[in-house]
Each structure stands twice: as C-alpha cells, then as structure tokens.
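Input:
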Amino acid sequence: MNPFGIDFGTTNSVLAQWNGVEAEVLSIDTPPGQWQNMGFDRVLPSVLGIGDAGEALFGWNAKRATGGKLNAVKRLFATENTVDINGHVVSVEEAAALLFAHIRSASAGVTVNRSVVTIPANSRGLARYRTKVSAGLAGIEVQALVNEPTAAAMAFSIDATHDQNVLVFDWGGGTLDVTVLETIEGVFIERASKGIPRSGGIDLDEVFANAITAQLPSAPSWSPAEEAQFRLEVERVKILLSDQHETNLQLPSGRYVPVTRELFIKAISGKLHEAIQPIRQCLSDLSIDPRGIDQLVMVGGSSKIPAARQLVSEVLGREPATGADPMTAVAQGAAIASAILLGQLDKDFFVATEHALGTVVHNDGRPSFSVLIPRNHQLPAKATDSYVPAAEGQSSVLVRVIEGDPTKPVEHEDNVVLKEWPIPVEPTRSQADASFTITYEYNVDGILHITVVDQLTGRQMLRDDVSFGVTKDKTALVELAKRVHATMQTGTVNGSGRRVPVPMVDAEAARLVDRARNKVIPFVDDEEAKRLEAICGDLEHASGDGLVECKGALTEALRQYAYLMV
Amino acid sequence: MHRTDAITTEHAAILPIYLVCDLSSSMREDRRVEALRDALTGLRDAVWANPVVSDCARIGVIGFAGRAWLCLPLCDIATVGDLPVLEPDGLTSYAAAFRLLHRTVRSDVEQLAADQYRVLRPLVFFVSDGEPTDRTAEWVAELAILRTAAVRPEIITFAIGEASAATLRQVATARCFVASVGTAVRDAIAEIGAVVIRSVVASSTSGQAAVAGPPPDGFDELDLL
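Output:
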C-alpha cells in the first residue's frame, strides 16, 4: 500500500503520495481557466456544496456555486455540531467526511484507504477527534494525526542531517500556526507552538474586500449571488498581486476597477503585524532570540504574499527555505511521515503533545491543574497518578480531563475541560482507603484513553476515551457512515439529516420554529433536541386545528428555555 | 332416556391485525399520506383476492397525531367499500397511540373470544415518519403497559422519513425495519404495504402471527437483541 498524506486544509486540501523516491502531489480537482497557473492546479478547495436537487458538489464546483455551500468546515470543528447547507442540516463530521470521501477517490486510479492526516498545531481534543472520525467515516484509516508545521518541516528538511531549530510559519486559508521544531538526527521535536485560530486567507480577503468596496463611488447593493462572485474575484486578485503590482478586478456589474498591491498591503497591515506575534511568543517561550532559529519554513497560501515573506524574514533575519511549494508542502510532509511509519523510508519520526493533559484537583478548596502528560511530550505517552477524594465521606468524585496550560488558572480560556465523569466512591472508607489511580494513554492517532482504578480493590472504575458529539451514541456513527457512503454512491445528499426549509404562511409559527432551531435545539441534550425538532417538523406542515395544537406545544416547550432566548 | 352424542366444536382461529399509522402534519410532506392511502387500498384488494385471509384475519386501522383515533374498527377489510379518509394533522404522540392501541386490542380480543373465536396473538404494524413529540418518559410508560398487558401484541415497526432507528427499535417486539438512505418516503410506504400484505397472508395461512421474508425493498432490518 502506498503511503499517503492528506492536508485537510481550511480553504484548500491536498493529497500527496510517497512513490519510493519523493512525495508527489496528486491532482484532485481542475480549476477553472482564470485560476490555472496560479498554484491551484494541484489543490482541492475545501468547499462542500449541495445543489437544489440535493446533488453533492465538491471543490471548484462548489466554490463557484453562488449559494448552498459550506466553506472552511474545519473551522467549525472546535465549536459547532451541525451546519445548514442549502436546507440540509448535516453534522460537522458528515460535512468533513464527505470532503474526505471525495479526496479518497478524486485522483484517477487511486483509492486512499490509509493516510497520515494533518491538523493545525493548536488543535485541541475535539478538533483532533473530529478530524479522525471524519476521515474514518469516509473510509480512510488515520495512521497518525500530524501537526501541519511538523509535516511542512519534513517536506523541506527531510534530508537534514545536522541538528537545527526550524521555525515553521504556516499561514493558510483559515489559521496561522507558528511552531519551532528541533531537528536532531532526523527526529522532529516540537519545542514551541503558538497560533491564531481565525487568521488566514479568508480573513485577508475580508479586509481586502472592505478596502475595495470603500473605494467604490457608492456603497454596493449586491444580491447574495453577486456578493459571492465578488468575494471569489477578490481572492483571485489577491493572489495575482503576489506577482504583480496592479491588476483589474471585475465587479458583479461587469465593470472593472483597478486595484494595487499598495491598497492590498495597507488593508492587511493589521493582520500582518498580528501574524508576527506568535513568532515572538514562541521565541520568548524558548528563551531564544531570532539567531537561535537555523531555518525558516513558510507554508500555506498566505505565506506566498511578498509582504508577509518580507516581514517574517526581517523579524528572523533569515530568508525562507526553498525546495517545496508552500501550497502543497504540508501534504508532502504527511506522505513522508506515512512512508516512515510504514517502514518504507528509513528515518525516525515522533509526534509530541502541544498542550498539557491532566485532571482538575481541589487541594486547598480551589481548583488546580494536575498534570499527567506534560506539554511537548513524545507520543505515544502513558502516565498514571493517584488521587483521593477531596473530603472524607464523599459518595462520588468528578474526574475531569483538562487540556491546556497548567501555569494558568483552570478557568482560563487556554484551559479546556474535554470531558468529565462522576464516579461513585465508597463514602464509608477513609480518604486514604478511597484513593484511586487515573491513567492517561495518548496515542499517535491523537485519541486520549482514560482508566480509573480503585487502589484498594484493583477494581476498574472507569475505562473510556475522550469522545465528543455523535459518539455519545455509537449507532449514530454507523448511520453517519452509511449516509456518507450513500451520498458518494448516488452523488446526492439525502437521509435523515435532510431538512428542506418549508415556507410557512403563519408568521408566529415561523418565528417559533426559528427560535427553537437557533436558540434552543443546538444547546439541549440529544433526546430533547430530537423532540423539539419533531415538534418543529410537524408545525411546519400543520394547518387548521393541527397548527394551533403544534404552536401551543412548541410555545409550551420553549417556555422552559426562556433563559436561552435572551 | 335419550342419549345424545357429545358434540365438540373446533373454534375457528382469528388473527387480529392492526395498522397503526402516524398521521402527524409531517405526513403531508411529499404526499406521504397519499402513499399510505394507496397502501391501505392495496391491502384491502389483496385480502379480497385471498378468501383464506378474509376467513382468518381481521384488520383494524389506528391513526395518531397529537391524539389517537380509530380510523377503521377491526373488521374483514375485504368487505369495506369506502376506506377511511386518512387526514394528517398535528403532533406525533406515541403515548396516545400506545394508549388507544392497548384499549382497542383488549376490547377486540374480548369481543372475538365472546364470539367463540380462538384468538391468535395480535399483530401490529407501527409506521412512523417522525420522532415522538411527547416526552420520552410518557410514551415509554404507555409502551410498557402495552407490552406487559395480558394480551400482548407482536409489534413490527417501520421507521421512515425523520423517524429514528433507535426509537422504533425500542418500540418493536418482533422486527424493526428502517428505510434505507436514499429511499423516497413514498416508495418506502408502498413497500410497507407489500410487506403487510405478505405477512397477513402468511399469518392467516399458517395460523400464527408471522412476518415473512427478508426486509422489504428500500429497508434495512435492525437487530432487536
């Protein structure tokens, strides 16, 4: 089996394959004429669309659609459960899985069954887990989740034989990650990593679009389709301005306006300077100055912007490395990692944690972060520690898995409680006799397994993994996999996730449904969400007495969630 | 003194069959209810064409939405000229459906026994296109009463549209069929009609409640264990 690497990017995704000699990038989409020769010939826009007839659209076909599409699904991994695409409510995992499924067989004659998949260095548990689940739903076994900067450095530094510090500046469509890697005899160790989750090409497009419209004689009044057309043109012109000083932008009216690199740089200057901060933070974390960096690697589409390359080079006093395409290096590095893991390339390769993992304890009444696996620890990692209930006579303890920075308070935004379990303990035992061990096992595939054992009896009190969302009901995963498979077989998105918006005549009913779906359903437990959605579904089709009945039922049901309406 | 030979009569066996149909508002979508009416007509015609079924089975139809009602009392459906009008509207109360089903089964079985029939275990085909809108505790309690009653029907469930497999699996006692991804709800309902006809014929001729054969086209079967 060939080693594959997938860069599942926020805006673009890339598939690479180790062919025994080098990591070659496979073509998985065909860009339209005016986007040819702009570096887009080997990438797939990470866009999923659903047409009016339910047909699934991928890549450029979806990107060029005027509506009914989802951009940057990866950005939703950490925050959302479902997305609405052209009236079809699909889970974030399903949307991502469809893109993975497309990538899996988009290259002629190639089917990817196993691959290294890259993730942003600052991804926390939920995003890591969802990446793995989504690839799995698409039929791709994830050999390892590798941080994008690590993969990028591997693409540039694979032949490096001497020890060095490599700073990877990965500025893609959606995120910015800066990572300092130490290369010791071909082994990459992440020494520091900082990122800005929502900083990338999408954000640059936004500020650039605002700057362009501010220059127009009057504020534009465009339809959503025209707005989408304009945004696509802004992105194209942004890329052109990396190579030329001036070009023309076509407005939705068909009229052309000239835009200059100067306008672009002015528009993004705030974002550029923001992008420098993670570099300074990494250097500060490691107590080194720019001279401690031996190599600079710049990857991601936004890293191709000359002003960005110049600014980063100035800060570090070093030119970026050459030898790989910034757009495809991450996938190539992932393919190299895959080859190493499959024993087809003789190099050592390790992955490390970029956040500490621990549990929350109350030693002096206040919560604190008890570390089990420290930051920058090589994976796979396993750690065990023992704990006692905080007070005598407790009948249960709350075991919480926390990820983040132990030097900061538990409630700090950098610290995230990934999951928690109440575990019964024997209240008649003394504190010492009620002691228990917590063991964390964190594998290369990025999934954390937890075991809690009663020290007195040796009884296992808990065995679980840190899982989220749909995994509360594993049968839901099976249904999701079936839907993904059916969509790829038929080319049409269908199944129980489908909800076609129903035009509602009764304004009060429409308002109730809107409030239920936007303000309540996303935040209540699965069982209640299904009940409320069922009432909404009936209300959408009700008339006469049935309408009165359904409105009454939904009003009554929503009343108990008044606190969510504010 | 006259001596009369003792005369023993073998009581005829009868199988009560209930079609319990979701008639909530969502059944208006995509002409689902029309498909249900067609399926019912098909069932009537199939029974008419098979006199053995007419002799051995009685069929009743219960509809439910925010409440439940008897659309067609237990009868020889072959003799019904005008089938009931199935008009959907309102919520999806499983609790109301199970409550009425329990009462109806009990009184029908009592009546059939009083009429000197040997009553076979009733067979229920439960069809829903959505999740229940009543609280879980409420409908689960009514289901428990139905399933522990003196006369417990065998329940075969069909999940179509937005109904979840997990919910309908909870309801079923015999078999649970879930419309496959990509199967249009109307087509699924037509297939339900076919499996009901098959089962009614098989049960009538074998003398016991039976759901014959593999899952209908466009359905997957869930393991109830």
